[in-house]
């Protein structure tokens, strides 16, 4: 069941009010989309976001991946939103909104503060015309969205609480992605979130917070973030690793007969298992 933008925003605010978080899973191809949907169907009480966004478009093409995600959500009985992740392009945002995306993330974190506000404000205006909700980012995460690079969180620009309050007031965004020590991808040393900074941001803002770079985050750190206003958590590297490990394990058996179906199936099942575990983790009792 493809959620409307209004339903998706309601799911986000409900998670925020209850100390839970929506899982936003990045999808690159048919098998990852199917694996995410299967995980959502295993936990139909928790809405899930399929994040078919700017970076995966480079691999699969925007139109094919966009249609794949939307069709998969529409034909499932689970509550699913389709979310454009990390877009810096207003034309891309408009194309996804017109196709039926329920939410978008406009990423102006690379821009000066005033320019980020201007870009985000225009994205919000366009999204409102299509009934979608908007996530933006203030501060900058270290690392790569598609490859774990052992990024150093200290190299990132942390989100300033007072600046965040101004940003939200000026743009009207529905959720804000923050930089509080989180990084994209796995790291050799455990990530430690600045929970004090996160508390200050939470206290300063009237909207839910979003945590990117949550793969491999220690459970106590994750629970600490949920208790401080984080109501959406993005997961990418954890699903990529599960997929690749399963494919690698299957290859010795599959190669003699060129059995690609067993390889794809193994990867899909691994994505489902990892995503189901994460959905449960984001719903603390």
Task: Give, in spatial order, the strands making up the sheet with the most strands.
Answer: 1-2-3-4-5-6-7-8
Beta content = 5-15%
Rg, rounded, reads 18 Å
What gap, in angstroms, lies between the N and C termini? Answer: 26 Å
Looking at this structure, what is the CATH superfamily?
A: Aldolase class I
Q: What's the CATH class, please?
A: Alpha Beta
Would you tell me the structural class of the helices and strands? alpha/beta
Whole-number average pLDDT? 91
Description:
The chain has 285 residues and is of the alpha/beta class. It has one domain: TIM Barrel (Alpha-Beta Barrel). Helices cover 50% and strands 14% of the residues. The protein is built from eleven helices and eight strands. An eight-stranded parallel barrel has the order 1-2-3-4-5-6-7-8, surrounded by nine helices. Helix 3 packs across helix 4 (62-74) and helix 5 (90-99) runs parallel beside helix 6 (113-129). The longest helix has 22 residues, at 260-281. Mean pLDDT is 91; it is low at 146-151.
């Amino acid at each position: 069941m493809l959620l409307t933008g209004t339903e998706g925003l309601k799911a986000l605010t409900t998670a925020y009010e209850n100390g839970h978080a929506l899982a936003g899973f990045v999808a690159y191809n048919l098998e990852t989309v199917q694996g995410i949907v299967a995980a959502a169907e295993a936990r139909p009480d928790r809405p899930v976001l399929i994040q078919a966004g700017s970076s995966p478009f480079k691999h699969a093409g925007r139109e094919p991946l966009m249609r794949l995600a939307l069709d998969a959500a529409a034909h499932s009985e689970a509550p699913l939103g389709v979310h454009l992740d990390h877009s810096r392009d207003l034309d891309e945002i408009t194309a996804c909104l017109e196709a039926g995306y329920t939410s978008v993330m406009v990423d102006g974190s690379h821009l000066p503060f005033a320019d980020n506000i201007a870009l985000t404000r225009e994205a919000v205006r366009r999204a409102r015309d299509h009934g979608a909700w908007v996530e933006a980012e203030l501060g900058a995460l270290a690392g790569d969205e598609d490859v774990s690079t052992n990024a150093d969180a200290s190299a990132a620009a942390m989100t300033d609480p007072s600046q965040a309050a101004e940003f939200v007031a000026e743009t009207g965004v529905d959720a804000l992605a923050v930089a509080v020590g989180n990084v994209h991808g796995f790291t050799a040393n455990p990530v430690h979130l600045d929970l004090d900074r996160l508390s200050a941001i939470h206290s300063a803002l009237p909207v839910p917070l979003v945590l990117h770079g949550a793969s491999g985050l220690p459970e106590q750190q994750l629970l600490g973030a949920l208790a401080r206003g984080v109501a959406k958590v993005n997961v990418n590297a954890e699903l990529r690793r599960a997929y690749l490990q399963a494919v690698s394990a299957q290859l010795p058996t599959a190669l003699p007969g060129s059995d690609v179906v067993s390889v794809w199936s193994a990867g899909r099942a691994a994505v489902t298992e990892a995503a189901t575990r994460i959905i449960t983790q984001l719903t603390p009792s």
